[in-house]
Fold ABC transporter substrate-binding protein.
Amino acid sequence: MNRRTAVALTALTLAASVQAQGTEKLKVGLMLPFSGTYTALGVAIENGFKLFVQEQGGKLAGREIEYVKVDDESDPAKATENVNKLIRRDKVDVIVGTVHSGVAMAMARAAKESNTLLIVPNAGADAVTGAMCATNIFRSSFSNWQSSYGMGTVAAKQEKKKTAMTITWKYAAGEEMTTAFKEGFEKDGGKILKHLTVPFPNVEFQALLTEIAAAKPDAVFAFFAGGGAVKFVKDYAAAGLNKSIPLYGSGFLTDGTLDAQGDAAQGILTTLHYADDLSLPKDKAFRTAYARNYKLQPDVYAVQGYDAGQILKVGLDAVKGDVSKKAEFAAAVQKSTFDSPRGGFTMSRAHNPVQDVYLRKVVGKENQKIGIASKSLSDPARGCKL
Ligand code: PHB
């Protein structure tokens, strides 16, 4: 073989291998709760993510998507082992997960150590885009602080409440949301009388409801979600407290739960980066497609799953499907503006959405937008050095 033929052959082989790489499937690890109190949240996130991928013809940056699923059971004790199954055994290209803040922190640690791409489609743990922030970690949802700070300011300034009690599950999400509510509430002159907690995922609220009734604060702020939120809102109404002490929350208290909560939820005010009646073209299209595909109404979790897909597409397009190029991937995501069903958002330097936080009121089966609690709110990203 002469030299020219040899060079031509090498070039051909190279081209063939690049093409093969380009068409290799992209492995997406979905680590979500598929059992327990957050099951519906995990399912909505998976549905939203898959809807986005389906709208792209089943491919991102030319690569077909292959899914590997792990049920994390919202159990922090099993989180490291579960995420390592995806990283080491399945060798996924990207992980999408999860709902529970405690599980997400273990995932962020493992993603950072192994330099695996991680997109968090719910869990608000402040540290994930704070002290633990990293080039390869992104969030399509919110920080716990971001979801609840505005409710504190609304309760004090607009609703003119002077005293409040908070009630939540005792773990990072509940602790960070109630602390953020307190920060907003006390900055505007309110006073928190007491923080009440139950262990996650317990739903025995009776003793604490009795304590609230006796203390008679002007308002109560709560974080619960999924099955636990349904039970709490119903118990609060059954105790008659909804008639005497207004219940506020981060919007998770009433999102995806209104069919089950019924009358007990009417009139509850919450803050969240999504509502059921935003009347935005992108939201209308999303809601119609989601309902047609899944015979279900979407909620905030479905939106966050969908937007995890959008983030992945923007990053992958910039690196032509090569997930090893983390810095280029991150630069593209940070430069982008996302047209989300929630409204537009951009990514902060710490990789958390900068977004409007709506004030919402439960009317019938909807969380209706009645105002904006915080415009283009960015998480303070305490401790992030990116
Ligand atoms: C969390 O653990 O961060 C979390 C869980 C459920 C929600 C919101 C936040 O609805």
About this structure: Confidence is low (pLDDT under 50) at residues 14-20. The longest strand covers residues 366-377. The chain has two domains: 7-142+278-351, 145-272. The pocket of P-hydroxybenzoic acid is lined by residues 99-101, 122-125, 173, 225, 252 (CB under 6 Å).
